[in-house]
Amino acid sequence: MTQAGDGPTSRVLRRATASASGTAVIAALLAASAWSGIALGTTVGRWSAVLLLVLGLAGLAFRFPRQAAAEDPPEAIYPTGRLGSLLRVRNGLGGLGRFAGSRMLAAAAVVGSWTTSRSRGAGSAWFGTQWTGALWIGVGIAVLICTIAIEPFLVRLLRLPAPYARGLPGQPRLPERTASAWLIAPISLLVTALVAVLGAAGSPGWIGLLVAVAGVLPAGALVRQVRARRRVAARLQRNLADAVADYRPEFVLYTARPDDASYQLIMWLPYLARAGRRFLIVTRNELPAEAIARHLDGSLADVPVVCCRGVAELDLIMTESLRAAFYVNASSGNGALIRYHQLTHVYLGHGDSEKPPSYNPTHAMYDRIFTAGPAANRRYAAHGVLIDKSKFRVVGRPQVEVVRQPDPERIAERLAGAPPVILYAPTWRGHVSETALSSLDRAEAIVGALLARGARVIFRPHPFSYADEADTAIIRRVQAMLSADAADAANGSGHRYGPAAETELDALGCMNLADVMISDVSAVVSDFLFSGKPLAMIAPASSKAAADDLEQFVADYPVARAAYLIDHDLDRLPAALDELLLPAGDRLTEVRAEVRADYLGDFPVDGYADTFVDAVRAACDNPPPSIAEPAESDDGSTGVSRDTIRRNLDSLARTMISGVAAVAALTAALGGHGWVGLAAALIAALVAIPTLWQQSEGPAGTPLDGPRMILLLAAGAALGTQHDAGIAAVVTTVILIALALEVAVREGWEYPGVIADGLPELTVPATSPWLHRLSIGSILLSLLGFLLATVGDLLPGTVSVFDGLWALAAAAYLILIIIALRSARARLRAAVLAEASVLDVLRRRAPEFCVYFGSGIGAGYQVGMWLPYFIRIGRPFVIITRSLPMLTEIAALTRGTGVPVLYRPTLRSLEDVVVPSMKVAFYVNNAVRNTHLIERRELTHVWLNHGDSEKPACFNPVHAIYDKIFAAGQAAVDRYARHNVTIPAEKFMIVGRPQTEVIKTADAAARPSGQQTVLYAPTWQGPYADSRVYSLPQGQSIVAELLRRGVRVIFRAHPFNYRFAGDRQLIERISRMLEEDRRASGRQHLWGAEAEQQMSVEDCFNASDAMITDVSAVISDYLASGKPFAVVAVGRTEDELIAEAPAAAAGYPIAEDLGDLDDALDQLLITDPKGAERQQMRRYYLGDFAPGHAADGFLAGAAELLGDRVRT
Predict the structure, then answer these.
(1) Percent of all residues in the chain with a pLDDT value above 90, rounded to a whole number
(2) φ and ψ at 507, to 5 degrees?
(3) What is the pLDDT of residues 975-1034, one digit of tens each?
(4) Where are the transmembrane segments (predicted)?
(5) How many degrees, rounded to 5, is the angle at CA 1187 between CA 1182 and CA 1191?
(6) What are 102-123's pLDDT values in tens digits?
(7) Could you tell me if 371 and 438 lie in one domain?
(8) CA–CA separation, 809 and 131 (whole Å)
């Protein structure tokens, strides 16, 4: 196995070690604090306990995060207010819900000093003067512990999505989001410290109780504030449809990004507003909605902002006035809005550059692509992205109208010797290697060279660079260089950096101050071209161009022909600066003018933005037909299931009960009431042990660290107050440290690493149930301590023996923890190394294609229907899934086939799956995250789908993003055109439907003259009312008529209908009808598991003589049998049905009200006049492939794309 070295393995292990060390030190301080109060009992002891406690609490506070993780928008959305800014807490929830075990132990540590300060030499009467204060403080500590226990549930409440709307006329104003959530945990620490100080000072116990209760108030206030905000948000959502309809917007500006990328929207707002049409801003997450709302002022202050988290919520804003949608990025969530064909969908982007985002194949899904100049149009084809030319509109780049041309006075100053002003604007490192084009790693050398020439520098890094720690460190060092130069050099005061260059000015403002610019492959390059000023470009680290040969760099990034070129190693930097810094008349002046027209449009400077504004108006005046496209799933639900609420309340109750019981045991033990303490400990154990045991056999849950720590402290106190306090203190402290380190054990075993099936080289040990049973060991150890202490009181001569027994048991527990820590560390190392070796393992496997499954549902049938044919291609391949449950589902399908399945949770993790041998990626559904892999242009991306029907899912404009579309027959190709979806003909390959090869054809002579079998196969309802074409609500009447005719029925419900309570009831009623008829008539009807699990859909076809369905993929597949079928026309007339679904013309339409059901069944089961039409329709829908050879077209098409050549 390779050594970790200084790579990711060592970094992860160092972080894990640092975290475990911090946890151990804090546990030691808190345990020492508790025992200082318990064992010493003096004033010095009590104040020593306070000091140690404060140190432990400070350690906890230091570990609270100062900002939310960049990939966690639901937490990052919370501001921290002025106090947070003062304390450098940027955003998020701080320590809320974190380190609960240590914080509960800290609260319990206070009890010792309060109790012993009032009980030594004062007897042990429970309600005597001495003990009343201790009881009060015991209650107070229990309150503190309950407050800490509530925090994880406060976090869940705060993270719940809520509707957001701002600026809609007549609607209530949504209260500001709380900026105090991060304060709850620090206040809890302060309250704990204050209670400790009061105890050491000898204050009455009731004061400690009042302080502890006061510590609950901030959490209560937070809950009240959040609930009030959610009530207003709910009212906004109820009124949303009417409010938007009253506002009558003509277009929307849309972003589906979950983070704050406000600049992408802000750059377009003034120019969209110039169109003079009403519009609203739509986001899919609250963070960007609230961020953009903060930026709206002046003439744009009244522009409404709406957050539609769930895709179904988008229905609420679809008013008759709406005509167009404009998109500022290629987010994977854009497809949710694309489904509305009544809108003209226009891609704007957020900058024009030679980077992959500017020729992203997903742009093909839009009706229009607004480009800055002809170069942008050519860029797509140059990178193998085929998009119909009619979609492009050259509109210029309106934002650059504010970029000023060279100032003659400034040129004169330069000629007179004024120092040059140089803008250095490096891009960011990007999400994946293809967009790793930044020169920021060379920033120090570049800026150093500029300073050496006496230049004034404007340093403006990309804002996204701050998301990376290493890049942020570089930025800080460069800023320090500029600051130092400003102090040392006479001209240094002219430098701009930090807020002066990044917030006080935008990028275009920086360009106006600069004489020249240095950048890399970035959108600022084409923007700067508008100025006509000189610029230089730095080749990316991945470029093969050497210092003496940068032709390949220009070939890869044509805009570079207008720039002075610098290799990434900076060998050419001095020579480039010599030319770049000429005050006037540089040799590239004419080339820049030519490239400017090519990249920014050949429009005059005056009125430059008018072309864009006119194009916006034209898009609003050109609505296509109204058809809606159902999406895969509603991924933005704002509701919480009752099961989730029940589980949360159950977990909270268990934590509170066990915690309070543990505090009671501690208080009783310190008072010398061993049997009472033992009883309380038993209550805590009876709650905790079943909880931990259940977790050992299922998903991890609440580990009850806090109650277990307090229980161990209580057991030690019981032994220490009656036996040898020194031994008890040492043993208890060591065991508390060990218990605290269970967190490190869990983290080591829960680190995901690589999750795969069929790739033994990447196997990482799975979590073992004994880890949770180890937690149970700490409870048993506590009970043993109580038992020994109590029995020891009855048998004084055995005290030392019992102390030794407890120490021995504690040593055994400690040894187990040490073993577990070593095991967890080894597992962590294995997981990190496995993650790092994914690329090497796949290189050795050399898969030639991959099957990509980005959805969270449906793998069983969607991948399952294609898997046999993937295997028959005869080439090695891998299945990639983005959902862990789907990996399990797919692995069940591939077991015994040798096909590997790999789980890749993040966009960055996809980097390692595209190996040189891989040439093709197949897609079986239109999952939102398909776009993540489609951006990899070294692959040919092939759309397969998981069925062929007339439903909107089979003519989704999003399919245009794929390089090839495998169509079953010409009907599939014509379907797109019929619904005004423009896709180049070159993308289609007619390959048939291989799954139909197992469908047996009908033999007219063999049709039974007696009992007939009819398959009833309704589709599912779909997520939207406007796309429902299913006949299940009519199913009872249809089946009743079939039964009246003596027909044997196979009822196969769509699996997705089981997700809806109403549809489950309909299925159950039809099933009961069939069961009752089977008992009465003896006809062997099939339904439920028999028809849906034990039989495939093809088995059902073969077992039937005819079929009744609705607009479903089963129609085209059933054509392969040649058998008659009927189609229920749901939501449309029979003529409309045939217009929308031509295959229905070869069947027998049934009206939605079933008024013609009897006649249709006569034709279906008796006369069957459409036999010849069905044969023609079969060829039209399934291709002209002979019976038994339906897979030939698919296999040939796959072989053609794979070829024989392996990429190098």
Answers:
(1) 47
(2) -60, -40
(3) 999 888 999 999 999 999 998 999 998 764 344 556 899 999 998 887 555 456 789 999
(4) 12-38, 44-62, 95-114, 134-158, 179-200, 206-223, 675-693, 727-745, 774-792, 804-821, 849-871
(5) 60
(6) 999 999 888 876 665 544 433 3
(7) no
(8) 32
Do 354 and 429 belong together in one domain? no
Output phi, psi for 188, to 5 deg.
-60, -40
The tokens describing 685, both together, are 């154990």
For residues 1123 and 1004, the answer to whether their CB atoms sit within 8 Å is no
Q: How confident is the model at residue 125 (pLDDT cuts 50, 70, 90)?
A: very low
Strand ranges for 540-623 from DSSP E: 564-566
Which of the 8 DSSP states describes residue 666? H
Q: Are 529 and 402 in contact (CB under 8 A)?
A: no
Check if the beta carbon of residue 611 is closer than 8 Å to that of residue 601: yes
Looking at the structure, tell me whether residues 268 and 238 fall in a common domain: no
Beta bridge partners of 306: 165, 282
**Number of compact structural domains in the chain:** 5
Q: Which two tokens stand for residue 114?
A: 């309060």
Strand, coil or helix: 544: coil
Cβ partners under 8 Å of residue 843, min gap 6: 915, 916, 917
Identity of the residue numbered 845: R
Residue with the two structure tokens 């070869």: 1146
d(CA 725, CA 732): 10
Residue 553, domain CATH = 3.40.50.2000
Q: Which domain holds residue 127?
A: 41-247
Whether 402 and 508 have beta carbons less than 8 Å apart is answered as yes
Residue type, 1109: T
Q: Which residue's entry shows tokens 């009472």?
A: 676
Q: What is the CATH number of the domain that holds 950?
A: 3.40.50.11720
How far from 1166 is each of 1009, 1158, 1159, 1162, 1176, CA to CA, in Å? Answer: 10, 11, 10, 5, 21
Residues 6+ apart with CB under 8 A from 392: 368, 369, 371, 377
Mean pLDDT confidence for 424-434: 82
How far out from the chain centre does Cα 484 lie?
Answer: 42
Is residue 708 situated within a structural domain?
Answer: no
* Residue 100: closest CA among 656, 526, 786: 656
Q: Can you tell me whether residue 331 is helix, strand or coil?
A: coil
pLDDT band at 332 (very low <50, low <70, confident <90, very high): confident
> Does 204 share its domain with 275?
no
Residue 268 and residue 540: Cα distance in Å, rounded?
Answer: 29
| Structural element, H or E, at residue 852 | strand 849-853
- Contacts of 344 by beta carbon, 8 Å cutoff, 6+ apart: 323, 324, 325, 367, 368, 619, 620, 622, 623, 624
1142 Cβ contact partners less than 8 Å away, ≥ 6 residues apart:
950, 971, 1177, 1180
Q: How far apart are CA 726 and CA 728, in angstroms?
A: 5
Written as six digits, the tokens of 243 are 């409010």
User: How are the residues of the chain apportioned to helix, strand and coil, as percentages rounded to the nearest 5?
Assistant: 55, 10, 35
Q: Identify the band that residue 422 occupies on the pLDDT scale cut at 50, 70 and 90.
A: very high
Let me know whether 927 and 1021 are in one domain: no
255 and 239 housed in the same domain: no
Alpha carbon dihedral 335, 341, 342, 344, in 10-degree steps, equals: 70
Residues 1051 and 905 in one domain: no
Q: Residue 1142 to residues 60, 508, 1069, 1135: CA-CA distances in angstroms?
A: 68, 55, 32, 10
Instruction: Give CA–CA dist 727/711, Å, rounded.
Output: 17
Angle CA 1158–1163–1167, to nearest 5 = 135
| String of DSSP letters for 973-993 | HHHHHHTT----GGGEEE---
Q: Which residues have C-beta within 8 Å of that of residue 1041, sequence separation ≥ 6?
A: 1157, 1158, 1161
Could you give the CA distance from residue 388 to residue 793 in angstroms, rounded to a whole number?
90
Structural contact between residues 310 and 635, judged by C-beta atoms closer than 8 angstroms: yes
Which of these three, 369, 396, 423, is where a domain ends?
396
What's the predicted TM-score (pTM) here?
Answer: 0.81
Residues 6+ apart with CB under 8 A from 437: 355, 427, 430, 520, 521, 522, 540, 542
Per the domain annotation, does 762 fall within a domain?
no
